[in-house]
Amino acid sequence: MAGRMRPALGVAIVGGGFSGLMVAANLLRRGDQPVRITLIEPAERLGEGAAYATEDPLHLLNVPAKRMGAWADDHEHFYRWVCQRPGGCDPGSFQPRSLYAKYLRSVLDDAVERAGEGGSFSHVRERVVEIVREDGRLVLSLFGGGSVCADACVLALGLGPPASPPADPGLVADGRLIDPWTEEGRRRVAKIGRGERVLIVGSGLTMLDAAITLDAQGHRGPIDAVSVRGLIPRPHGPSGACPEGPPVGASLREQRRWMRGVLASGAGWRSAVDAYRPDAQRIWGSMHTRDRERFVRRLAPFWDVHRHRCAPDVHTRILAMHDEGRLRLHAARVIGLAGGGGKVRAELARGAGCLEAEVCLLCTGPHADPRAWSALVRGLAERGEVAPDPLGLGLLSDDLGRALDCDGRPTDLWLIGALRRGELWETTAVPELRVQAAAIASALVSGRTC
Ligand SMILES: Cc1cc2nc3c(=O)[nH]c(=O)nc-3n(C[C@H](O)[C@H](O)[C@H](O)COP(=O)(O)OP(=O)(O)OC[C@H]3O[C@@H](n4cnc5c(N)ncnc54)[C@H](O)[C@@H]3O)c2cc1C
After folding, report:
1. pTM of the predicted protein model
2. What is the structure's pLDDT at 5?
């Protein structure tokens, strides 16, 4: 008698950015167990999230095309996909992020088309507000009413909304405080007047996006970008031979000594940072909590601008704006945003004064603590279904990605991406996410629990 097929596994995926989409694609591709996938994501188009929803062709990927493949076992998949399009592709080029969203949807469409017998995929355009357990299954409540039941659930919630200094609520209502990661925010940026004074809180990759969009739409007023260190991402460029990275288990002090030695040898900062790549998560995992805390407090801004680089063209454009005096960088902490008289006033810490503008863009990056992201995460944490890591940067999980409850037991909630930041640190870019997506899919279909 032919072997009977196992009953379909019901998997709910919350979030339809890169991570959610690629967990679904990996599950469909495997075919060794039929899966019924319900992906819950409010946006109409999947694969976009905060990173790839932009339509601006000047918003480029910050990783070369040859390394942006969505499959863990095929890093050049994106590069080959672009090569088939008119105009071809240079493997080291930095492609528009809007193109990457199209690529991701083609990956999913292909996986759905090839799905094995018993596999299914559906996209529910909703927001999950609560997850509870009933009769051994998970029940996901939706914002608009109704629910979805599942055997397992993957939380692919992404980065969460940007952190904001305390702000006058009227600023959002009258369109002066803008979150450029939202569709509404992008519409508002497009309407900023040519000569309006713009304040940008944050000076990372999102600030670069905002500044080059403003420049391209003809904005010629002053732009003040303010962040605690006033650093901007460094550009990609040639890096020399990569030295061997610091050993797993090295303390922060030992790593600093190692870094000084590599730089003194003339290897260059790109090589020194790249040397971490193969083992960055394990090095972080082996660090004492006290060292991790010190790193986050003192060194993370320096790490971020050297590790998460920008496309060289973007950097050149930003430097030109800076040299022309149109973009000014300030190293200060914004402690409050007040409105009045058609202006936004940012108060700076340590009596450093105020900055005033007609509009303010929040380019701060996500709030560090995921419990501040949504009622969903807060509710799960309050009921002990998930537990924050000691620094509150993410949620605890085991090596497979299963969330640990407040007693340290693995659950049927799976975590991918930024939610694992406390334990992995480097867990927000495609090279890490594709590995996690494949590992979660593999563990889910094989029923692997350890
Ligand atoms: C501006 C920007 C540019 C970037 N550029 C690059 C790059 O060039 N290369 C690179 O490797 N990485 C880049 N990144 C990193 C990026 O985080 C990852 O590449 C990837 O997009 C993250 O995908 P994600 O699915 O984990 O999160 P997201 O893309 O943020 O997706 C999360 C999704 O979850 C949904 N969601 C959240 N809560 C709920 C809920 N309760 N119910 C239902 N849905 C919910 C949201 O609507 C969202 O669509 C960039 C990030 C940003 C912000």
Report:
1. 0.94
2. 61
